[in-house]
């Protein structure tokens, strides 16, 4: 293997989930030299296994996490402005279950939810009564409540932050594992490994944003004691055919005092989740259990007229949330707040990230840079609250962009224009590269995926495999057959062979 020595970076970030790319983006935008490494694909674990929501966390109020909820509520507004193509407002309906939570308690919680954080773009909460004949809910539900949160394409949120970090000068290395690191003379000596071999880099600061592996890396990769314990809480979801019409989601209360969402997903489906269970196995191999499947089906069937069986499940996904161990007996009550641990390792700064949630990644990144101000003595102030993410530049509206796509590219259907506009925003024009007809997009892999888009994802968004493209970049995996996936894999293999030949030359 080849060993290559690099110059000293200000920061090396380990982990390409939302917290890692968020910190890398913020740091690069302040003029720091940054390298981020991710052992797999961007957002390939926890950050793509969420409920696809930007939300304040209504149920966290019951656990008195007011600081977290206030911050998350404020961030909804910030993120809506930063990325309106991948984040959209969504109304949530909560059927009333008097024996679980009295109406006065829910109204009080929703009052705090409306006013605890700054709210400009989202509508407030209100009570509703159900039309029993037309309601998708079981007949016992006659009234409920409605409030606002947001839906998000979680994996694309990660990718867009990585793109923005790169555009500010950060180096993003996917499929690159950090084997170990040690401090020498106050500088981190970091050993990376990927398909090209070993690479040694140096850094003033090491940021451990390894998510489920945060504590393991401290112990095994750094030979240090972790300042906090980590609890892995598994959350699983099922995807079923569309349960109800309309674009509103439902939040279902259960007898165990947990809540489960039923969320409209990709127009044809309903996403049901999530669960909360302790997880003690390998985070690389987390998958839904039969107990979780039964739990989600039971909650759904208790609330909706349409009854589901296991045969209705199209697919499932699971992830583990790496939460800071607060010694809670109830997995659902473990804090979703984040903890930043800054430690000195023989004169070199190590910042480890414990916990966190998708909604507050940007504030977590700001807090991380604030922790490191004594190291870098940077005078730059937080910058990215008002900075749009890639694709939101000069975006009047997604609907307007869809119209422009269809006007400028002959033969594009409204559904394809919609997918492009929501995924790429105004960066779709870079993808299309002045092409004017769908016939110019190259090989058609099916379901609106053409070679032009695949090439763009490989060249600009670190995609390597069909899973990267179908599950995390486009969400087309629900439509592709095994044979169609094989054709795409063959195309990607040909690209890799060509790239390898060019590297050798």
TrEMBL record:
GO molecular function annotations of the record: glycerol-3-phosphate dehydrogenase (quinone) activity
Broad class of enzyme this protein falls into: oxidoreductase
Key words of the record: FAD, Flavoprotein, Oxidoreductase
Biological processes annotated in GO: glycerol-3-phosphate catabolic process
Limits of the Alpha-glycerophosphate oxidase C-terminal domain: 387-490
Catalytic activity, as annotated: a quinone + sn-glycerol 3-phosphate = dihydroxyacetone phosphate + a quinol
Cofactors, names only: FAD
Pfam families with a match to the protein in the record: DAO (PF01266), DAO_C (PF16901)
Cellular component, GO annotation: glycerol-3-phosphate dehydrogenase (FAD) complex
Record domain FAD dependent oxidoreductase: where: 10-362
EC number per UniProt: 1.1.5.3
InterPro entries according to UniProt: DAO_C (IPR031656), DAO_C_sf (IPR038299), FAD-dep_OxRdtase (IPR006076), FAD/NAD-bd_sf (IPR036188), G3P_DH_FAD-dep (IPR000447)
Family statement drawn from the similarity comment of this UniProt entry: Belongs to the FAD-dependent glycerol-3-phosphate dehydrogenase family.
Protein name: Glycerol-3-phosphate dehydrogenase
């Amino acid at each position: 293997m080849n060993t290559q020595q690099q110059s000293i970076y200000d920061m090396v970030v380990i982990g390409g989930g939302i917290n890692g790319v968020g910190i890398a983006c913020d740091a690069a935008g302040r003029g720091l030299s940054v390298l981020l490494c991710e052992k797999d694909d961007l957002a390939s674990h926890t950050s793509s296994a969420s409920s696809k929501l930007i939300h304040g966390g209504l149920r966290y109020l019951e656990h008195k996490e007011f600081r977290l909820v206030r911050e998350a509520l404020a961030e909804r507004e910030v993120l809506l402005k930063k990325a309106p193509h991948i984040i959209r407002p969504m109304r949530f309906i909560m059927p009333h279950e008097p024996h679980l939570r009295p109406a006065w308690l829910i109204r009080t919680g929703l009052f705090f939810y409306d006013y605890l954080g700054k709210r400009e773009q989202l509508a407030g909460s209100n009570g509703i009564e159900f039309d029993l004949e037309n309601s998708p809910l079981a007949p016992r539900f006659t009234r409920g409540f409605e409030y606002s949160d947001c839906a998000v394409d979680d994996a694309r949120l990660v990718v867009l932050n990585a793109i923005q970090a790169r555009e500010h000068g950060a180096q993003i290395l996917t499929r690159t594992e950090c084997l170990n690191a040690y401090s020498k003379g106050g500088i981190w000596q970091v050993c990376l490994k990927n398909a090209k071999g070993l690479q040694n880099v140096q850094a003033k600061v090491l940021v451990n944003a390894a998510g489920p592996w945060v504590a393991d890396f401290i112990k095994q990769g750094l030979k240090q004691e972790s300042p906090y314990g980590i609890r892995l809480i598994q959350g699983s979801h099922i995807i079923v055919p569309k349960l109800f019409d309309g674009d509103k989601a439902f939040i279902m209360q259960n007898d165990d005092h947990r809540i489960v969402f039923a969320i409209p997903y990709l127009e044809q489906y309903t996403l049901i989740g999530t669960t909360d269970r302790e997880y003690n196995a390998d985070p690389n191999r987390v998958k839904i259990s039969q107990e979780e499947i039964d739990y989600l089906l039971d909650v759904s069937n208790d609330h909706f007229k349409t009854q589901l069986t296991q045969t209705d499940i199209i697919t499932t996904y699971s992830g583990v949330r790496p939460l800071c161990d607060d010694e809670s007996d109830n997995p659902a009550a473990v804090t979703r707040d984040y903890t930043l641990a800054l430690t000195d390792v023989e004169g070199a700064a190590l910042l480890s990230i414990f916990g966190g949630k998708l909604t507050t990644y940007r504030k977590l990144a700001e807090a991380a840079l604030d922790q490191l101000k004594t190291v870098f003595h940077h005078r730059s102030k937080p910058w990215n609250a008002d900075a749009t993410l890639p694709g939101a530049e000069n975006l009047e509206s997604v609907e307007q962009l869809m119209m422009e796509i269809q006007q400028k590219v002959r033969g594009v259907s409204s559904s394809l224009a919609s997918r492009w506009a929501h995924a790429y925003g105004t960066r779709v024009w870079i993808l299309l590269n002045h092409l004017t007809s769908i016939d110019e997009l190259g090989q058609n892999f099916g379901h609106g995926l053409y070679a032009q888009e695949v090439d763009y994802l490989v060249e600009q968004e670190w995609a390597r495999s069909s899973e990267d493209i179908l599950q995390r970049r486009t969400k087309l995996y629900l439509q592709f057959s095994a044979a169609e996936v094989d054709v795409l894999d063959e195309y990607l293999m040909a690209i890799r062979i060509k790239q390898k030949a060019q590297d050798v030359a």
